[in-house]
Amino acid sequence: MGFVTYEKDGYVGIITINRPEALNALNVQVLKDLEAVIDGISLNDTRAIIVTGAGQKSFVAGADIGAMSNMSVQEAREFGTFGNEIFLKLEMLPIPTIAAVNGFALGGGNELAMSCDIRYCSENAVFGQPEVGLGITPGFGGTQRLVRLIGVGKAKEMIYSAKNIKADEAFRVGLVNGVCTQEELMPTVMKLAKRIADNAPIAVRNCKCAITDGFLNDMDHAVSIEEKYFSECFETEDQREGMKAFLEKRKVEQFHNR
Fold first, then answer.
1. Model confidence at 1, in pLDDT bands (50, 70, 90)?
2. Which PROSITE patterns does the UniProt entry name for this protein (predicted)?
3. Which of 17, 105, 241, 248 could form a disulfide with 59 if both were Cys (CB 3.0 to 4.6 A apart)?
C-alpha cells in the first residue's frame, strides 16, 4: 500500500503508517491503505501485530487538517464513520496488537494507538486530543477510549483543555504500558510481540475475546463469557501439548495453532 507498509518477522506483523513528510497524518487514502492491510492479515501465520509510524518524529500527528477544513457536515460524518470502522477493525482483530508510539500521537494518532491492546512509547512521544482548539470534537473514538483507559476525570481534562501530555505522564496515568528510548522502542515491542507469539495462539485469541466481550458486562455475565472461552481451549492440540509438556517438566517446542 502507498501510505501503509506491512512486513513480517516470523509470526509478528508490523504495520507502519508511512507518510513522514506529513508527520504520518491520516487522510482518506491513508485510512484506505490501513484498512486494506488489516483485511489482509492472516491468522494462520500471524500471532501478534505491531503498529508504528515512519521516521523518528511522529507516530501519527492526527488527521489531515487541510483535507478536513472544508468538509460539510455530511462529509465530516462520513469521514468519522469511515475512520471509526477501520479503528474498530484494528481493535477487534482476534490477535493482540501493540502500538509502538515513536513521537507525536495527537488526535487521530492517539485514537489509533488507543485502538491497540498495548501501547509502548519513546521518550519523545507526545499524546493529546487537541480537537476543541480546532472547533471540533475527537472523531475516531477519542471521547470513548480515553475515558476507558485513564478514567473519566483525566480524560475530560485532556479533551476539554486540548492539553498534550508527554511520555512520562502518559505512563503515570496508564495511557501507555512503558517508556523506552527511541533506539530501544522497536526492540522492546518486538520482544514482547514475539513472547506473545510463542504462546498458544488459540488460547491468546480466546483471552482477547474474553476480555473484550466481558469488559462492559456485569461480573456474573462476564465470568460466564470467560468460562466459554476457557472450555473451548480443551478441544485444541495446543492445550494437550501445553499441559503434557508441563507435566513432563519440559518446554513446548512450538504451538501449532490447532
1. low
2. ENOYL_COA_HYDRATASE
3. 105
